[in-house]
Amino acid sequence: MSGFVEKPEPVQVPGLTHLHTGKVRDLYRNEAGDLVMVASDRMSAYDWVLPTEIPDKGRVLTQLSLWWFDLLADLVPHHVLSTDLPAGAPAEWEGRTLVCKSLNMVPVECVARGYLTGSGLVEYNESRTVCGLALPEGLSDGSELPAPIFTPATKAAVGDHDENVSYEEVAHQVGAETAAMLRQTTLAVYSRARDIARTRGIILADTKFEFGFEATEKGPKLVIADEVLTPDSSRFWPAESWEPGRAQPSYDKQFVRDWLTSPASGWDRRSEQLPPALPQEIVDATRAKYIEAYELLTGHTWS
């Protein structure tokens, strides 16, 4: 059992057709056929969309994604057409709304890992592999990998869990040429972002991207979509306190995950019980983590 604790009713805006309510984003189509993506303040963890929102979270994700899109544009084009608010949209959509190209999305979560943690660590401890890729002995939680690796996953519906898959399985699903393009682009973008983050005192441990194809006169063109390199889709660690062999402090939603699995929450993630509301101090601390990541990376003061 998983999904939304309380699924919100979509906002109705004249001229926009509601398409989908995701874990974090609401998706609409405008009369021109473009997609309108609105990042909410919803927080998801352990395949649940929690009942408590994190103020400003959607704006942080949107503004940080825009910052990264600009820095990565020479590696891969992005899907953003405009940040203008659609006519008739509510004021609270300001700063969290993107008008985007409609793409033929690739049904693969493109994950890059430069450090060992999370589901990769679980698999490594069992078989010394991650997504079937052999890794050397002696690695532990937080270890830097010899080189970044591409570890794709299937894209799950709300309430389902993304499943790691092998590169060969991706090639079978989307074709060898597309799979090779996804791997090359994912690792190139990760490497660029990792190096930028390092100059800001942040380790980019891993991240996931979504890609789609845009129809052009010269044929399909690969485009990066959704969000990019945010605390929702990436693990950001403070470089100064990095120490392999233990869980790392982070600037991402791990803070919420840790509280949910602590005795303080009273919640058993293996049960059929709904996850509890987050206490105010966890909400405030999580908001502060997201804003700190934005400010450290961009050098801009959040307002």
> Hey, roughly how much beta strand do the residues contain?
15-25%
Q: Helical amount among residues, as a percent range?
A: 25-40%
Major beta-sheet overview? 7 strands, antiparallel
Q: How would the global form be characterised?
A: globular
Distance between the termini: 38 Å
Average pLDDT number: 93
What is the count of helical runs?
6
SS-based structural class? Answer: alpha+beta
**Number of beta strands:** 17
**What is the string of SSEs from the N terminus onward?**
EEEEEEHEEEEHEEEEHHEEEHH
Low-confidence runs (pLDDT<50, min 5 residues)? none
- Cα-atom Rg, whole angstroms? 19 Å
Overall description:
The chain is of the alpha+beta class. Helix content is 28%, strand content 24%. The protein contains six helices and 17 strands. It has helices spanning 57-72, 118-127, 167-174, 176-199, 254-260, 280-298, and strands spanning 3-4, 17-21, 25-29, 35-39, 44-45, 48-49, 80-82, 97-100, 104-105, 108-115, 129-130, 133-134, 144-150, 153-154, 202-214, 221-225, 234-238. The strands form four sheets. Strands 9, 10, 13, 14, 15, 16 and 17 form a seven-stranded antiparallel β-sheet that branches. Strands 2-3-4-8-7 form a five-stranded antiparallel β-sheet. β2 (17-21) and β3 form a beta hairpin. α1 packs parallel to α6 (280-298) and α3 packs across α4. The chain starts with a strand and ends in a 5-residue tail after the last helix.
